[in-house]
Write a structure and sequence with these properties.
10 helices; mainly alpha; 256 residues
């Protein structure tokens, strides 16, 4: 009997990788355009939803804009922003399809949990920011205004703050999902993640400083603390689901 090796990761040249990346990016952009088109019909509702955290923190707040075209383009940007969440499952599929050729066939079976839980956690990150962190941040910062100042936020600046904040949280909430896949493949372990916690602690504040639109330490800490919590959740996930990486067992044929 002879041993017949099962197929391993696909081998692609550098140019083939670039061509594959280009195709995946084009498909992802088309999905975002479709998401924008779907959400454009709900632009007015989206505006009221996005501005809700500020209204809950200050019921008397009045948004202003200063350019004639600002409101129109703002509605377009808001529709595109929500379209990102709508298109998230397909975009995550394109991400997985790009990295899948580098995996063994049995490792590619984790596509469904990656796409499913990645989409769920992306939305959960946005909801967590919208309903918890955003109102809490505005309430805290609003306490320093006093009685001699009137807060009249420029709506475009508010949207920029809101969108970057929520997109950052959506990406941060992918951490347990990514760790799950890496642990199942065998690339990381719970012990390794615990030993690397000091670097994760530093990285959480660096990342929060990059993705938060304001430079204040309060906003950065509000984002960094959940990031460290998600990292520790990833440690638990790796401990529960991790296993060493192995190549597929060679198939036995009847030849010879």
């Amino acid at each position: 009997m002879a041993l017949k090796a099962l197929p391993g990761p696909d081998r692609m040249s550098f140019l083939e990788h670039l061509e594959e990346l280009r195709g995946r990016l084009v498909r992802s952009l088309l999905a975002l355009v479709v998401g924008f088109a779907v959400c454009w019909g709900f632009a007015d509702r989206i505006f009221h939803f996005i501005t809700e955290p500020m209204r809950r923190a200050d019921s008397k707040v009045q948004f202003i804009y200063t350019a004639p075209t600002e409101a129109f383009f703002l509605y377009m940007k808001m529709a595109f922003f929500v379209g990102i969440f709508v298109a998230a499952p397909y975009v995550l599929y394109q991400v997985w399809a790009f990295i899948a050729p580098g995996l063994y066939p049995h490792e590619r079976a984790y596509a469904v949990p990656f796409i499913l839980f990645g989409s769920v956690f992306f939305v959960l990150g946005g909801l967590f920011g919208h309903y918890v962190l955003f109102p809490m941040t505005f309430k805290f910062l609003g306490e320093y205004a006093g009685t001699e100042m009137t807060f009249m936020p420029k709506v475009d600046e508010y949207y920029s703050f809101y969108s970057w904040f929520l997109l950052g949280l959506g990406l941060v909430f992918q951490l347990p999902v990514v760790i799950f896949v890496l642990a199942r493949i065998g690339l990381v372990t719970a012990g390794f993640l615990l030993r690397s916690f000091k670097y994760a602690f530093l990285a959480s504040f660096v990342v929060s400083a990059v993705i938060t639109p304001s430079g204040d330490i309060v906003t950065q800490s509000v984002l960094a603390v959940p990031m460290m919590g998600l990292y520790l959740l990833g440690v638990v996930v790796a401990w529960l689901f991790g296993k060493p990486r192995r190549a597929p067992e060679p198939a036995v044929s009847a030849e010879g």
